[in-house]
Amino acid sequence: MSHLDASLWAVYRWYLIVGGGFILTQACLIAVLLRQRTGRRRAAQSLSERLRFERLLSELSARLVPVSLDAVDVEVERGLRRVVEFLGRVIRTRARGHACRSR
Question: Measured between alpha carbons, how far is 98 from 102 in angstroms, rounded to an integer?
Fold first, then answer.
């Protein structure tokens, strides 16, 4: 008779505690995985930007090789303009990303 009089908490207490612990552990692991995913995404974006910049520098260097001495200044100015445009886009992109993350 005493078993029938026991409350649900008394009967299932350990099941509930263990189950709650599993759910809490699972939620923490999911949070860690999401944080790692965000970090990987940022790293991939950074590597992509770096590769584009290195390609730009390589292209600019290759364009300077066949240029005559008279046209070097013009070509260097053109190259610097392209570098400034590239860096401006990178800064705007990062600023937008930072603004979105801070909201």
Answer: 6
Report whether 82 contacts 63 (CB < 8 A): no
**CA 49 to the chain's CA centroid:** 12
Q: Convert the pLDDT of each residue in 47-80 to its tens digit.
A: 999 999 999 999 999 999 999 999 999 999 999 9
Residue 24's pLDDT is: 98
Is 79:64 a contact under the CB 8 Å cutoff?
Answer: yes
> Can you give the residue ranges of every domain in the chain?
2-102
- 80 near 64, Cβ under 8 Å? no
Decide: residue 79, CB within 10 A, 0-12 exposed, 13-18 middle, 19+ buried. Answer: middle
